[in-house]
Amino acid sequence: MAIATATVAEAENAETDTPTSRFAWMRAFRRPWTLTGVVIVAIFCLFAIIGPWVAPYDPSAVSKETLQPPSPEHWLGTTQTGQDVLSQMLYGTQISIIVGVGAAIIATLLSVLVGLAAGYLGGLSDELLSLLANVFLVIPALPLTVILAAYLPKSGSIGIILVISITGWAWGARVLRAQTLSLRKRDFVEAARATGERTSSIIFRDIFPNQIAVIAASFLGTVTGAILTQASLAFLGLTNVTEWSWGTILYWAQVSSAMLTGSWWWFVPAGLAIALLGTGLSLVNFGIDEFINPRLRQAGIGTKKAQRAQARAQRARVVRRPARARGERAPHRPYDPATSDVILRIQNLHVDYVGENSVTPAVNDVSLTLRRGEVLGIAGESGSGKSTLAYAITRLHKPPAQITGGGILYTNADGSTTDILRMSDSELREFRWDELSIVFQSAMHALNPVLTVGAQLDDVLRAHRPEMSSADRAARVIELLGLVGIQTDRVDAYPHELSGGMRQRAMIAVGLALDPEIIVMDEPTTALDVVIQRQIIEKIIELKDRLGFAVVFITHDLSLLIELSDTIAVMYAGRVVELADAGEFYRNPRHPYSQGLLASFPTLSGPKRELAGIPGSPPDLRKLPAGCAFAPRCPLAFDRCVQVVPPLVPLAGPAEWRQAEAACLLYEGDGSAPDRPTDAVAELPHADQMEDAR
């Protein structure tokens, strides 16, 4: 295995953005309406900062020029007491925006903390936090605001900010909780958990960035709502009316009957400012998605990214380290249980999905072994328990899934054995990705859409190798991309910028980041065309032979398993029904279910034939039939098949192969020949028929 290192200076140079990338965020404002909104908001913010210094008069100073319309001396006219309306507007802009932004910041922080925590943590935390939010949602906001403001008439802007924040955070929290509940089931969050990242890191680095658009929209909406609420409270006289704001101006105009006297210049500017600022914030909201979502950003900075990544790769000095001492084996070496170098042993594993009134056995009494450097293939129809088994091996299952029995024993390089099921959370964090990693299916969902591929590889290293410098991590990321055949100039690419095959290679690179002993691959070629599947399989074989790790490969496709695997386990209804060397399985499948699976593949040579297939559907795991679960679909079933659950029994076979096992009553006895009714013989595919089918 190779690891790349670089000097700190090189890493700093590598991570320096070009001017183009630094200002790439400005592309979000290329839309006219977004740019218009930014300009409007910027003008109001500027007036809020400099207003008190550029105001021509003291806003509270009275004069004899009462109720004067706009003139060169008073651009916005005067009030009933001769006060300058323009000066009041400039002073009032500062207070109104401070209240709006301040209340929005506090309310948004509360929404984020409560919404993300409740949605991700679940359980009692979710119930309590959701109850708190629901209480504030059912209380009418305006009456509550009026009541609270009435008790804080002398508190000024700070009191109004607190009142608006307390009454305005619950809705945002509810929305964020719903979004988090959806995101926490995504594969990239599961991958982050599998890498051992802390809960806080997952929430704020994986889930939070995917909700920035929602949070930003909520923030801007809260700013508008807070300004309107402050103006309403001031208009009702529930705030300090000696502190100038747009609402205060409207209050004095209403008290002085400005509408009745036709003094439109007194109340129109304040109302127009509120409407114009709200419009500007809404227009800015249109551009938020384009600013935040990598999918919506205009292409065109890819060349700069490529040049920067290529320079990074060239500056990194690659230093080779000796490969780990691992057991290399030639394909199909003789199997000897005493010297098989077992690295993972699954013993009588049971995984149930526990509901309120039912228990569904998804994995039922499964026992498997995995040797160092071996590929163990697991096949079966949907619902057979393959993925549940993978999640149990990696301890990534979540309620209602529960491991109710058995053990998963991992053998370290020094020969000591550890039960994965008995590991504490801290031990699991150290174990995952260091010794055992997982490659999820559907890489588009397993990769975080708002983080670059390089950043996600760096996350794994940062979580498990805190002693590594940023330079070493950057070099290691480059090396990993090279290992899986991705050009290093794609290090700054987002997942949507990669093809399906490249995304899957990136997931394999994540799995290889810490040089694990075992990689669990859960249908890594799903939804890929056959050409890309071939490339992925060849890359897995190449990396396995080069690095020496063991693989648990799960798929529906038996043709892939036969080519890739050393040993194949076929699962049906949560049980292993056949276990054999891949060569022996291909030459002579024993279980009727395995024969049906192989017979359903079309032949590429020889005479044409009708595909056999397997009649019927997999059983409902909640209501498994008595006896053999495959009996209702099996053409060779006889009376005892619906009465007795067949155990895995050893079968006679060539000495050069691993001893095969099958869970079928046809092989009762010594396993040398099927013990079956004579009328079933004609329906069993013979070896020559199976060969023709291939």
From TrEMBL:
Transmembrane segments: 32-55, 95-121, 128-152, 158-176, 212-236, 264-288
Keyword Lyase: no
Protein's membrane topology: Multi-pass membrane protein; Peripheral membrane protein
Listed Pfam families: ABC_tran, BPD_transp_1, oligo_HPY, OppC_N
InterPro entries: AAA+_ATPase (IPR003593), ABC_Ni/Peptide_Import (IPR050388), ABC_transporter-like_ATP-bd (IPR003439), ABC_transporter-like_CS (IPR017871), MetI-like (IPR000515), MetI-like_sf (IPR035906), Oligopep_ABC_C (IPR013563), OppC_N (IPR025966)
Spans annotated as Disordered: 671-694
Biased composition (Basic and acidic residues): 685-694
Descriptive protein name: Dipeptide/oligopeptide/nickel ABC transporter permease/ATP-binding protein
